[in-house]
Amino acid sequence: MSNFFKDVLHDLNDLEQRVLGPDYSYYKQIKTPSQIGMSADGSLDAMGRDVKGLISYVKLLVQGGGKASKVNGPLGNKFFLQTGAECRDINTGKQVNRSLYINNIPDGSIPFISSALDTKFTSFEGLIPGTFSNLGDLNPLAIFKAFMTGTNPDCMKITMDTVDENNYHRKESKYVTTSDIKGLDPCLFPNKKNPLTNKNCNGAREAFENIEKFKNLQNNVQVFNYIYFTTLILFAIYVCYNANKNRKN
User: I need a surface site. Which of 74, 79, 80, 103 has the fewest CB within 10 A?
Assistant: First the structure.
């Protein structure tokens, strides 16, 4: 057994990050209303800027990125999490420290729908779709398989992209069990291919019927976006108009 737990007991302040992973303050990555031009002024120009600001926040929540975000892309971090356990390196046969690879950046995966169509929706990488994606990752079967690997499972070293709380990207290498590696998305690997399953990014199956389904669904999503944003803009104008009217009265 590694000295993981001994180190934790000597530094309780570091316990949370060692067990749950590093902090990532989402609110620090989001611009304030004033930073994107929103204000309490009741003029028509200000109302127009307020509507644009609302759209920027909606885009951040649904699509990810946009003017309301300080990050060029979806929010979240990636990191290796120490488990405090050991595993057997399949290449050397030595006992090494076991880690988990955690990805908290939305990739457009929507539970059930993405698996059915074997594709992802890159226009849904915001915080709300990311929450649904994380819920889909809570697979009871995967948890059960983790217990079935035993106390000394096989593992191998992998090099993956990590993103810290400052959105700084760098490559790190750690030992992860082979069963965990098989469950990782091929798109997460530097060469866009899972080294154990040999699946490529976006899936190995590229059937024409799936592509057609995806195109049709994308068209429907675009129509829904237009309707949604139009409704949001009209509602925002109505609210601002009534607020300005009440202020004058």
Answer: 80
**Cα distance between residue 155 and residue 195, in whole Å:** 12
Of the candidates 154, 109, 145, 150, which has an alpha carbon nearest to the alpha carbon of residue 129?
109
The pair of three-digit structure tokens given for residue 17, joined into one six-digit string: 């990050």
Instruction: Give the phi and the psi of residue 6 in degrees, each rounded to 5.
Output: -65, -40
Q: Nearest-5° angle of CA 154, CA 177, CA 200?
A: 115
What global pTM score does this model have? 0.68
Q: How many CA atoms lie within 13 A of 206 on its CB side?
A: 5
Show pLDDT as tens, one digit a residue, over the chain (249 residues): 455 555 555 555 566 566 677 888 999 999 999 999 998 887 888 889 999 999 999 888 888 888 999 988 889 999 999 888 899 999 999 999 999 999 988 887 665 444 544 555 556 778 887 776 666 555 555 555 655 677 889 999 999 999 999 999 999 999 999 999 999 999 999 999 999 999 998 754 444 444 455 455 555 555 566 566 666 666 666 666 666 666 655
> What distance in Å separates the CA atoms of residue 178 and residue 186, rounded to the nearest whole number?
14
Residue 101 one-letter amino acid = Y
Is 55 in contact with 232 (CB distance < 8 Å)?
Answer: yes
Total residues found in the chain within this entry: 249
Taking alpha carbons only, the member of 35, 72, 64, 76 closest to residue 52 is 35
Cα dihedral 88, 90, 92, 96, rounded to 10, equals: -30
Q: How far is the C-alpha of 185 from the C-alpha of 195, rounded, in Å?
A: 11
Show the tokens assigned to 116: 């059915």
**Residues 144/66, Cβ–Cβ less than 8 Å:** no
At 22, list the tokens: 């590093």
